[in-house]
TrEMBL record:
InterPro entries: LEA_2. Residues 43-122 form the Late embryogenesis abundant protein LEA-2 subgroup domain. Gene3D superfamilies: 2.60.40.1820. It holds the Pfam family LEA_2. This is Late embryogenesis abundant protein LEA-2 subgroup domain-containing protein. It comes from Lysobacter arseniciresistens ZS79.
Amino acid sequence: MAVATVGLVLAACTSGPVRRVSEPSARIQQLTVRADGNWSVDLRLENYSSIPMRFDAISLALEVDGHAAGTLVARPGITIGPESADVDEVVLVPSAAAKFAVAQALGRGEAVDYSLEGSVTATPDEAGQRVFDDLSRRSALSPAPGLPGVMR
């Protein structure tokens, strides 16, 4: 009986932690209207996996207040630890309709709805690169008090 118990304990030790790869997520942490009219978008990349993941490429169509704003395209090349997040800045030349919608929201001190649709290409630790192409996020941005031209 004692030998069997020791064998089970040793077997449990060799299995190690579960390596789970989950679909990552992205959302806008902050949108800043720059002096040249372009937007600086701080994109929060979230790794829900139990292992580190390197974020290689991002291609996300951005819609603001029902208007296509453009596509956020980036090659961050950053590794995010398990169940953690990091931010990557993406500069976007927005469409005129989206630019106007954000300007109106900022001027009125109101929130504006946004959506992201697209793909994230990432490489889980010690595994092959994967394309997660069903990324979809809907949320809203509100003017940041005391920070002109900034929405969070």
